[in-house]
Design brief:
Length: about 450
Amino acid sequence: MSVVPSSSVDSPSPGATGLDVRPFRALTYRRHDPEHLARVSSPAYDLVSPSGRDRLAGADPHNVVRLILPRGGVANGSNAGPPAADPPPAGDPLRSAAGTLASWRADGVLVRDVVPALWVYELQPPDGAPATVGWLGAVALPPAGSSAVLPHEDTYPPAVEGRRALLAATATDLEPIVLAHDPSPRAAELARDVSLRPATLAFRDDDGVWHRLWRVTDEPTLRQVVGALAATQAVIADGHHRFAAALAHHRSDPRRPGSDAVLALVTSSGPGGLRVEAIHRVVPDLPFDRAVATAATRFTVSEVGSGRDCPEAERLARTWLAEPGARGLLVSDGRRVVALTEPSAEALAAVPTEAPAAWRGLDVVLAHHALLDGPWSVPDDPATVVIAHDVSAALRTAAERSGTAVLLRPPSPADVAAVARAGARMPRKSTLFVPKPRTGLVLRPLDD
């Protein structure tokens, strides 16, 4: 099998409107056994709670969470065993991440590929759902005005700056964004052919999802994959803040090698692609009775039910949200569940009429413009509105923080694509594409 340097794989022309996917020399853990990969990998940084970060850091002294969510002090690769948690913060976390990464490379914990490659990445859920399969590569950052990569969500500037600063400090893409591209039968066929071989990396995570990756270095396959994906465009499914951070980092030093691309898993928006779930909102310290009373000025209010605890409230909420054709929002304090339906003319008028129709019809837009920005008068920032990635977490947070949860239905993949192609943006953290790639399996140093 021949290998190919990155310069010998033809990229799309500078004026191309499709994806420009490039092989790269990956940085991976030297040990590939499944137990080790399970211990050293992590969910994406924005899915890790403070307690979850401590658990991951305690699982192994080389868990990648020490890089993506750094604290002060360098985690030395020569530690004899996994500590209960990181040492107390001391110094600059960014310098800590850079120093930790450098020490792991020097100690051989992480090793660099000799030749560039693309990777086939398969995620197999435990529930019998079809596997999600895509190509992991360095995707060129499109020029301004290009439709090759389209965002669909707003970003929060401090979060973008935090990811940009970490990228600058480590000079490494530590975790991939996810792009949902136009269906490409050829790209899918090539991935299927590769997956018939033994996987390069494979393990099952705590949620029962199997992650399998194949390193691909042969020139004919690389050329065909690059060509097939160059005929597609993509919507950002996951990683809006990291994508914006990569753009900002490149603008700060356009001549820096490798800064003109971002590590991305590109997977089809059709069969074999991702599913979309909702992301919910919680407003801490918003009394539920007051929240419902003020919402009644713009919605029809009806009691769905009252549970004894969060699990019973979750059952009530999930049943209502799953009803075909039902429209409206749910609110809850973790026990009582109330539906907000039939938005008034005033509520509908709060949604900007000049926006695209695909955007105006989203539940998350109605929640923000007709409820949070309206009768509740709540600013959309992380200090005021807490994001919850599933119903149970939203209800639990509402109960623990004496607040009110807003439970939403997910948009369809077609809704997301329509919003992106119309040039509109959903509120931050509106969509949860699943399953998620695992962080730490493949890293991309910028000096490729």
